[in-house]
Write a structure and sequence with these properties.
Elements: E1 33-38, E2 49-54, E3 59-63, E4 78-82, E5 95-99, E6 104-108, E7 118-122, E8 125-128, E9 136-139, E10 143-146, E11 149-152
């Protein structure tokens, strides 16, 4: 409580800056690392990998894993991609995704980058695209058809 009275007059809770002390001793010099590709080699790296080697003498071997089996399809796995009226030019053609369970998901976006993508499940019926191509197509229990073409799913 230097310079303070009981009532708190003249108290400064932050104090006054003191004189800086001397610099400490320098730390240990750092090291850098580099990465190199490792070709497949039986017993060492069967699927290849990468070796990280550092100037401080440390290193690490990173191994690539083995390819796994494909997962079995789920009811919502995409099994077919259909672009209705593929010969009609347009900037952002709408796409239909046929799922493993034979449901059809329509994907429509504002641009080629997927801006404002909308997804809709379609039932059998007749539809028209909203992508400026005015493509009319019909979905039945196993066919998507349009003027000049069709696909069976």
């Amino acid at each position: 409580m230097l310079g303070c009275t009981l009532a708190g007059n003249g108290c400064n809770s932050q104090g006054t800056d003191g004189t800086n002390g001397r610099d400490g001793i320098n730390g240990v010099a750092g090291s850098s690392c580099s990465v190199s590709s490792v070709v497949p080699s039986p017993g060492v790296a069967p699927n290849g990998g990468a070796r990280i080697t550092c100037t401080d003498g440390t290193d690490a071997l990173l191994l690539n894993g083995s390819p796994g089996a494909d997962a079995p399809p789920t009811p919502y796995s995409v099994v077919q991609v259909v672009k209705p009226c593929p010969t009609i030019s347009g900037s952002f053609p709408e796409v239909l995704l046929v799922m493993q369970d034979r449901s059809i998901l329509a994907s429509a976006s504002e641009n080629a980058n997927g801006k404002n993508t909308r997804l809709s499940l379609l039932i059998p019926g007749t539809y028209s695209t909203t992508d400026g191509r005015s493509c009319n197509f019909t979905i039945t229990s196993n066919t998507i058809s349009w003027s000049g073409g069709s696909v069976t799913y």
